[in-house]
Amino acid sequence: MKKSYWLLLAFGVGLLVLSFTPLPDLVGLVGSNGSRGGAGAQASGGSGACPANAPEARLDFTLKDMNGADVRFADHKGKVVLLNFWATWCPPCKMEIPWFIEFQEQYGEKGFQVLGVSVDDPPERLPPFAREYGTNYPLLVGADRDDVQEAFGPIFGIPVTVIIGRDGRICKRHLGPVGKEQFESEIKALL
Predict the structure, then answer these.
(1) CA-CA distance, 144 to 19, in Å (whole number)?
(2) Which class for 101: exposed (0-12), middle (13-18), buried (19 or more C-beta within 10 A)?
(3) Cα–Cα distance between 143 and 111 in angstroms, integer?
């Protein structure tokens, strides 16, 4: 999809999120420690483990990472996976990335993996971004991969974050920015 389309959608989602965010939470959302928020929508409520009726995630996809290597989603079955759909130009996406880096460092050895799917950036934009942010997880090229976006969507705006349990089921799905504590609580419940 075109960048202008995604920009318009991200802007619209951002306005929608901001319109329903009480002022104290908004201050926390952009606060200096970056640890508050909670403006995200999730499919399955609460922060507990995966619901019994959680749908199976499609793990039959292979995407190229920013260096051109194949990354197979199926290779991560058995881990808790945070699958994040984002773009380099998206402010709410950039807000969440430092948290994902921290989670990867803290929980990676416990069977956790972050996969970042850039929805419309060309591959050459990802390495400079990764260096600037110090990402420690794969940044995947998702431009022109509507099949992947549809499998975990619908994705009407970004960021969209899907948390997949060890058994390959979609346990949580968030549209828009979510607070660090909420993400961490959901991850820890599945580890």
Answers:
(1) 31
(2) middle
(3) 28
pTM: 0.76
Q: What is the pLDDT of residues 50-59, one digit of tens each?
A: 899 999 999 9
Cα–chain center distance at 178: 10
| Residue-range domains of the chain with CATH | 3-190 (3.40.30.10)
Amino acid at 130: A
Q: What φ, ψ does residue 186 adopt, rounded to 5°?
A: -65, -40
Q: Over the stretch 120-132, which tens digit does the pLDDT of each residue have?
A: 999 999 999 999 9
Say how many C-beta atoms besides its own lie within 10 A of residue 102's C-beta: 15
CA pair distance 147, 164, nearest whole angstrom: 18
- Supply 7's token pair: 């920009």
